[in-house]
Design goal:
Shape: elongated
CATH topology of the largest domain: FAD/NAD(P)-binding domain
Bound molecules: flavin-adenine dinucleotide
CATH architecture of the largest domain: 3-Layer(bba) Sandwich
Number of helices: 7
Largest sheet: 9 strands, mixed
Radius of gyration: 21 Å
Strand content: 25-35%
CATH class of the largest domain: Alpha Beta
Number of domains: 2
Length: 351
């Protein structure tokens, strides 16, 4: 079988890249071994324009957020599913310092930050001695539904191979690659944290980090907001709530831990005034990078091998825009911005 592109991995990176490559009439085959505990499958799916303790805007959010919203809405129509909803984030300040940082930021960040009307109205749900701020709008993407539905569509069109990809079976030729019975102009790795094990990319400054979340049933908590105080409570599938997350750089394994469970239970008991029940506990590694910028492009010394990775904590907002940009780079040779282009590492990538 001959195709233009062979893609390895169908998390949000592989999903969006295959979507745009197919839209541009390329032929594509995807290999993905379906991991229910991949980062994309356990993420809460929030797009938040504001980040950190100083309430600053996230990188490129003015471009990324509207692009992502349009892209997910177009996919909703194409796949006939409900994928994205606008919401807001209520940030119950955890200390007087956080309250002050929010208040100091308000006059300069008038687009995304505000003080909610009647800020005492959540007292029956939460304990919050230091007030509440609001980020608006935020967006909530159902990544799991997108990935499952896109996977079904790819399977129906016989474009997906549900297998583990084995690098030993990859043959690189001057103008094409061969993998088992597939010949492609290029192979593109969208395989999340597993890319750090590939001989072609292992020198890149990956900095994977682990995140865990509890899935909770909470009766009577209004579902139109995201709530935050150190940890976030995000409405998720089946009328449940996603409670997380941790950011661990030193960890022995990628599985759920008792330490996280106990710490989160303690936080919830202090903050949440409603009874709750734990339904599940999930964990995954985020494909993050030292510079907190994606790795995108074709290998400077093996132009038949590409990568779309390093989406870190922001896969929902980064994947749509940069998948489109990458697909146009491949088709028309349009340059990638230097902050994301893999070419910035050409020295360390030399064989
Ligand atoms: C707890 C947690 C919460 C998060 N919350 C958010 C959030 O609210 N908003 C946000 O924007 N981001 C969030 N993220 C980050 C987001 O999940 C990631 O940025 C994004 O999912 C990365 O997508 P990816 O496709 O690059 O990698 P992955 O989701 O890891 O996908 C990689 C795919 O490649 C496949 N694969 C790997 N190796 C092979 C192989 N050898 N053969 C076949 N297939 C293979 C895997 O099975 C998987 O399907 C969160 C992450 C975590 C862990």
């Amino acid at each position: 079988m001959e195709v233009d592109y062979l893609i390895v991995g169908q998390g949000i990176a592989g999903t969006m890249l295959s979507y745009y490559l197919l839209q541009q009439s390329n032929t594509v085959t995807i290999i993905d071994n379906y991991n229910p505990s991949s980062a994309s499958n356990i993420a809460s799916g929030v797009i938040n324009p504001i980040t950190g303790r100083r309430f600053v805007r996230t990188w490129m959010i003015e471009t990324l957020m509207p692009f992502a919203v349009n892209a997910y809405q177009a996919l909703e129509k194409e796949l006939n599913i409900s994928l994205i909803q606008q919401t807001n984030l209520l940030d119950f300040h955890s200390t007087p310092q956080m309250q002050l940082a929010f208040t100091n930021r308000l006059p300069t960040e008038t687009e995304y930050l505000r003080v909610p009307e009647n800020s005492l109205q959540w007292k029956k749900y939460f304990n919050y001695p230091f007030g509440v701020g609001e980020t608006h709008p935020t967006w909530l993407v159902n990544l799991q539904l997108l990935i499952q539905t896109w996977r079904k569509k790819l399977c129906t069109q016989q474009l997906l191979i549900a297998e583990h990809f084995s690098i030993e079976a990859l043959q690189i030729h001057p103008s094409y690659i061969q993998y088992q019975g597939i010949q492609a102009k290029a192979i593109i790795f969208c395989n999340g944290t597993q890319a750090a094990n590939l001989p072609y990319f292992q020198k890149l400054p990956f900095a994977p980090n682990k995140g865990e979340a509890l899935i909770l049933a909470i009766q009577q908590l209004p579902r139109q907001h995201i709530y935050k105080q150190s940890l976030s409570l995000v409405p998720c599938q089946n009328n449940l709530w996603w409670a997380g997350s941790s950011y661990e750089w030193n960890y022995e394994h990628a599985n759920p831990t008792e330490v996280f469970r106990q710490k989160t239970l303690q936080q919830l008991q202090q903050w949440l005034q409603l009874p709750f029940e734990i339904k599940a506990h999930v964990a995954a590694e985020r494909p993050a990078t030292l510079e907190r910028r994606p790795f995108i492009g074709m290998h400077p010394y093996f132009p038949q091998i590409g990568i779309f990775n390093g989406l870190g904590t922001k896969g929902c907002s980064l994947a749509p825009y940069f998948a489109k940009v990458f697909s146009e780079h491949l088709k028309y040779g349009q340059p990638l911005i230097p902050e994301v282009a893999i070419h910035r590492f050409h020295k360390i990538l030399a064989p």
